[in-house]
## 1
Amino acid sequence: MKIMVAVKRVVDYAVKIRVKPDKSGVETSNVKMSMNPFCEIALEEALRIKEAGLASEVIAVSMGPAQCVDTLRTGLAMGADRAIHVDSPATLYPLSVAKLLKALVDVEKPGLLILGKQAIDDDCNQTGQMVAGLLKWPQGTFASKVVLDKEKQVATVEREVDGGLETLCLDLPAVITTDLRLNQPRYATLPNIMKAKSKVIKKVTSKELNVEIKSDLEVVEVHEPPKRKAGVMVSSVDELIDKLKNEAHVI
Amino acid sequence: MEKWRISRHIVKRSSTSLFKSLLSTNFEKSINTSGSTYKSGRNCNPYVEHYFQCQKRHFQTCCHPLRDYTGNLHASKATNLEHICRIQYKSFGSVATQIQRNPSFSTLNSDDVDHFKKILGEKNVIQDEDRLLTANVDWMGKYKGSSKLLLQPRSTEEVSQILKYCNTRCLAVVPQGGNTGLVGGSVPVFDEVIINVGSMNHIISFDEVSGILVCEAGCILENLDSFLVNHGFMMPLDLGAKGSCQIGGNVSTNAGGLHFVRYGSLHGNVLGLEAVLANGTVLDMLGTLRKDNTGYDLKQLFIGSEGSLGIATKVSILTSPKPSSKNLAFLACKDYLSCQKLLQEAKRKLGEILSAFEFLDSQSMELVLTHLEGVRNPLPPSIYEFYVLIETRGTDESYDKEKLEAFLLRSMEGGLIADGVVAQDINQASSFWRIREGLSEALVKAGAVYKYDLSLPIEKMYSIVEEMRLRLGQSEKVLGYGHLGDGNLHLNISRPNYDDSVLAKIEPFVYEWTSKHRGSISAEHGLGLMKANEIHYSKSPQTVQVMASIKKLLDPNGILNPYKVLPHNILYPEA
């Protein structure tokens, strides 16, 4: 069984982001970019499933401009067997990504499609669900535990939901999106980095996949959240109560 | 003082039993009559000869003041026995820390406090017990003073007025910043007035073209770095204590840090300094010029003087543009020779992009994994003999990454590296750095630590760790880690509690060993209180004498950070 993992190249989680002066978006030039943390977790889970002998191959997929190849290299260095880069200079929104993934799934025919639950740059949390809908596959989102049963061809997924944990049993092929507590991704070791140099990264375009990329969303404006006002030091309890009553109106 | 009485009895007992067979009766008598005080030395040269003679004696492995005792027995004069005062013991009750409060310093009285309140205002004169407690104890919890007063000046003018007053009143003071020092230099020994410059934390100016930053001495290093990041610059030094340490303290101790191998010493990066002398004179050496060869470069005296020549109030420092690409590799080597060869290769192959080269041994790794939270072994499951951290910084990410990976793969093929990982994002890089930077913290959590900071020739660096292990035996945890790129070893012995018999096996062996290999007994931590009497291991008597003259010139009453940096026998010679 093949496992396909979709990974996204985003602004590194630890970077302090700034909004571009023209408010059209976030400053991404000269800023460190890395693999989306949830995608790392997705890839780690796929690798663990493969190491448990339940899958034969892990394919990493990324979509975007040429620099996506860096993210794919990281994926290969972690242990993916091969990678596919869908070259697309334009910004891709979740529905377009989902359509492209469907096209790739139709070609590669994996038994499991694992994605991160959301990307940390847009926080959409839509791609996994959309692609499951397009493929008409069962989905287990916000997975915090995944157990595969090869003979019965089912995946038991424990999901983190608002009320607690929900356990679902999905028939394969299925879509799983990963949440934070699923696993701790491995580091890229030197031997694996060495092996990754000889692994294949295939490049395809949306045209070859027969997918039309329409921009159904348009970003109108991006601005920073209002700056937090400085705290006020009060000199006595009476003044505090006065402020709470008359200024903040909370008592 | 009362608190130490119990430990004093223990000390007295242990010291007398230890030395009964070895010492003359005079010595014992003087211990019992004068309440175990000792006299400080006189003139340097004859003393030093005595000193070195004493080295050869049988009891050389024991504490220094007692060694001083026997050395000076013959010259013992009545005058010094008159100056009997309270005895200060360190909190772990080691015999090696017997010092006497200098009686020429006055004691604080309420008039003094009122005067300070007039200068600083009520809020900045602190006599509250709890706040004094934190200011009186150093970061490791090893040194405890008993100061009754903490002052928080907000400007150079206030510092000047405080010092002027203290000088006329002959009140000893301790300059204090972030209190993160590791040799007891930032806390009082007895009741010195603590002058904490933490409130002087404004950034005065920053020139984006030259990268020259002018700020007050109380600015926290990490805050300066955050300020500079917005302008695309960074501080030339970085250390584990960056969240608490202040730039004034960094300059006064000539801090080294993790990027020393790339950006060099503060002696080169500090362009100007404003310092206040003991008599209140404000020395404005706050230049912002890269080159200025007009006269003697006085600021160099203050850099690394550990607050004993003046209090730094403003610093002008050269910062570098922040490199946009950072790469970090965490590597495992099977022996120390591979680490050395790796350093050679890294300097050659990585050249200008190399910004840090650190190492730690297997015992350090085990300690960090045990005592620090949220830390995991980057190369599971085994623990290798040595780990090396290599960081590169440059302007082109993909070029640097390729260069680093090519270097690493070649080193691996060459057998220098057993295994390794390369950080793929900033979080991974931080977690690797945490392992190395968190060592001091883990050591403090593990209990008591005997900490030594040595500069040694790189080939010999790890030999001292191995010899110390042989010397102390299997039961003691001896760790070696440090800035391999600069030839700076941090030797640490970690135990559940302090034990004088273990200390006796460590000191002065470690200093003698270092001296024998022409190393420095304090590479970057400074002398402080811990090594105040050990300078002779690394500096000649003549140089120490000149240092003492300079100290006398700039601080005739010796009120600035007394009992530290220079040996007591030189600081307080008999009149």
## 2
Amino acid sequence: MTSLPSSSIVPSRLRYYFRRLFFHLTIIFKNISSRKLNSLIVIFGLVFSLTSLFVSSIWIETNKSLISDQYIESLDYEMYITSYMPYRMNEIYEFVISDPLVSHVDYIYQTEALFNFEDKSPEYRFFPENNQEDPSNPISITSAILLPSSSIDRIGVNFNFEGNLSLRSNEILISDLEARELERIYNRSIVPGTTINLAVTKRIPYTDGGEVYLKYFDLNIYSNFTVSAIYTTNSARTILNKLLGGFGSSPSPLDDSIIFPLEAFSSSDLYTLERNGLLPKLLVKTRADKMRENGISLMVDSLAALRDRVTARFYFSNCILLDDEIQSMVDEYGRISKSLVLFIPSIIVSVLLVIVSSNITINQRREEVGILRVKGALPYQIILLFFSEFVVLSFISLVISFGLSILLSGILTGTANFSLFYGYLQIPVSSIELNTIIVLGIYLVSMFLKLYSFISQEVKESFIISTRGRKAINKSLFIFIFILLIVGFIFELLDFKESTDNYSRSFSSMILSVRLFLLFIGLCLISLYLVALILNFILIKIKPIYSLLLKKSSFFIHKNIQRPRKSFSSLTLFLLIASSLLSFTLALQTSLLKNIADEQYYLQGADLRIISHSTNISSFEEKIERINGIEQAMGIYSTTAKIASLTIELFGVDPLKYLDIGRWIDVSFVNSSALEALQKLDSDPFGICISDYLAERLGFSIDQSIYISDFFGRASFLSFNISSLIRSAPGLGFAHGVNSKVGRYVEEYILLNKDILSNYLGVSNGTLFFASVSEPKKIESIKEQLLQLDEVVSVNPEKINPNYIGYFILQFVPDVWAILTISVTFILIISVVYIFMSTNYILQQRREEYALLLALGANPKKVRKMIFFELNIYILFTLFFGMFFGILSALGSLYFVKPLLITQEIIPLRLHVNSILMLLIIVVFLFTTLLSSLSIIRAQTKTDIINELRIEK
Amino acid sequence: MTYNNLYKNQVDLTILISVLYYFILMSTEFIRVENLCKTYISPAERLEVLRGCSFTIFSGDVVCLLGVSGSGKTTLLNLISGLDSPTSGEIYYDGVPLHSLTLDQIYDFRLKNIGFIFQDFHLLEHFTALENVMSPLLLQGHSESFSRSVSFDLISRVGLSDKVDSYPDQLSSGQKQRVAIARSLAKVPLPRLLIADEPTGTLDSRTGDSIMELILGLSSEHNLTTIFTTHELFVAKLASRIFLLRDGKITSLSPSDLNNESFISSLV
Ligand SMILES: Nc1ncnc2c1ncn2[C@@H]1O[C@H](COP(=O)(O)OP(=O)(O)O)[C@@H](O)[C@H]1O
Ligand SMILES: [Mg+2]
């Protein structure tokens, strides 16, 4: 019967262990709850640092796929394919449609459509258009785009429309411009639902240019088609626009065309057209999830691989990608996600808070540790006690942080896309693990170091390395790290210098910028440690100043500042770090906001920025100027041409008007003021302003002459004089570089006298006008009046180019300045908590002293004054030095954090410090100090004096 | 004239005034306590520590407050020094009731008139011995150099001129108490009342003896009214008047009572 006892022992043993465990847990919870404030602060600090790290990793991971998918979804297609063997297009089609990356492939044809041709004879001459045979009853010829009905879902992104965007087999879409022309011709209104007759056709090839007769066309006639929608294009950067050549400010053929359902064609009709030289093209839509399979930064590469797969098989094909646009999305998103590194200051501060609060807790429990030691507790048992508390606190923080970060990362993404975000939610386990280990590790190590110094106080003396020796080692280690950081920083800085050009920030410069930022923050922390030492030294040495300020009590204050323990000098380092990181982040934030505002102002160009339909510039200028309150108006004449092999845009302006109306800045021109440059341009009819980039690249300098060729693609050229070098112009953006913010997609523009364009080159129409007003107050009513005009599309649009990729990104993620604002707020909150906690703690420790002073006859008012003065010396000094250091660092770092803050430096990013906000921070800090010390002093009542001085205490 | 001399003159002047006081006001009442009661009320209990104490102290008296531990000696001293207020009853200084003074006036009164010596010294740990002595003078608003020279004289007087720059944690208990004694006298003019709450409580008997000797020597030298408390009979014998505090009441004893064996056994 030996089995019986053992079976009964096991459960009782288990019960015993359970009871012990339970007992330990109750002790732990009692310890934690008896120090509620400290536990709360530790949890707060842990939760904050963990949450911010978690949020950033969850957020980056989730948004990566969310944004790339949404972006791809927002595009019509990502690629089009042409081929000079049109009869083999179906082979290409078969191949492409079977590719796993591809979701749709559509055929597209671009040809012509005729209206009002029914009553005309074959000999009817209708081209040149302004010289038709019968101007009172003309034929209308327009571009016709043939697309399958199903493509309507995808091409829709190109249009703003009126009606119902559908393309069934007897429906057509008509552009607004064409609809108006048809209204004039037919003398009836063309609205969605109107039926209409048309012929889709292709001119018979090899006919001579010049005069065009109706007989040159094979007419495929379609009667009673319904106009389903009338559209205007939005010049989005899409494949359709790229295919039809309508990027940027040059008008797109889509603006003046119809869209016709491919299904309405019989195969014989299509054959006739193809015989006449109509070439099919393929539009390719990809699968978003497959595009980002190899990582978002390789999206363009995935697309290029598809192109390579096609051209490797079909040598006669040519694939054109929407690569620039996709890459700019990747870059812009990359910038914002990289700029999360700017959040690091607040994480550092919160980790510091955790370290400090855990140290304070242990300090307060010094006695407890001593008693435990006396009672015979072994060091490991004491450590175990603290460790189990640490485990419980960390566990609580971890759970809170995790829940909070999932919630916050969704909120950060914008409530409009809340459900979308959680649909895509991705939790990067490995980086979350790493973050947890780092934060909790720092906490644990700092706690053990402190605890160890208590427990081993007796043993300390017998250490082989004496304190002095250890100090020497610390010092040399410190210097070593300092030098290492400086060397690393300089190397990276040199690298960075090489990798940046003046205008745009590349992806690699962003990564360098992140590295530089991290090194810089490390350097700052070490320097701040030095500053704190120096500051504490200075504070001890300036006794005469104290006696000057506070004659009677200066002795006590000076003694308190000198004291080794219970001194506010322990505040210095943290407050220095907090205030300098705070002002650093704030300075970056205000500089960035200022820059964004300035840039918007500059890109707006003038008081009024008027976008119109293509219209005669000089008459529209007059029309605008007739509006009450408008001083001057000026239209931009533009056309494209070439310098060497570079395609450029020519902007013709009236220099003196532009000087008056435009919002010029001192860096608009290189080495000259806008006044000089524009007056010079005015005096020389063949003067041009070219970008400094172009001048350098082509080796030209001011006053040399230069040829511009290929006006409108025709073989002709003119010689010009380089009048000055322009960096950017108000309303037009950079002279060099793609300026997607102003909706300009040509790499280079030159500024010249409008007379050349209007007199020599026959440019008379334009779409962009600037105007100045006499009274800024009236601007809103003037805007209303302008919008009444038929020609006007928009006035002072809030987003200068609504298709700018940045705006797409901002739908999902906050801008960098918002990240900085959140960071500033958090550092401020943490600093306030810290000040409150530390002053409270230090004053608590000094209660007995204050009680003694009161017993000796010191007046409470005097004691209060002394405490305030002493505390404020620390707060003000550290704030002053911290802010000074922080602003200095912001100034120093502006150069290399630029890539994280802005994409293009249209307005030079300069440091801008908002002194009111800085003052506000000082006030908040002082107020917190006041509040925290007040709570202690108020508690110092009469009975407290007696209690503090009692022996039994 | 150096500050030192100035101080000496002032001390002389104080002595002169004290002597005058002694003759004119000898046997004049300094402190009168009437029917003093103090009850500590806490949620747990109601503790009647003092239940109607009445006595009079004349200037120049050296009074010992004798009582077992927990009998309320410290409580009574706190009431006398105005650190605490009584539940009922009244304390008069020179015929002026303490409760008629404002809080500010009480602080001021304490600063000018009362020197404190505590059982556990209560020195400021970050002040040197000299600076500890200086602190009441500085609080009184004297200049630093003046306070320094006055304190130096006082600290020499208690025999610690070689320890002026030592911090409290570098001093023995006896030395700390000497610093505290010097501090209790550090007022210009000298305090009228010296309060010592069990000044020898934490000291060994030999050190205790010398400390008592020092206190009483100084008090008689400057003719200070002195109240000290103790729970030890042999210390009480040093006083000119002895008040026994028992069951919240005061009984006046004559020094001869302490030699009476039967009386002592009745105390225990
Ligand atoms: N602030 C207080 N609150 C409650 N009880 C007190 C307080 N101060 C003293 N006591 C109690 O009053 C009694 C007398 O204390 P005390 O005057 O310090 O005695 P003694 O100095 O004679 O040893 C003691 O029982 C003590 O516990
Ligand atoms: Mg006592």
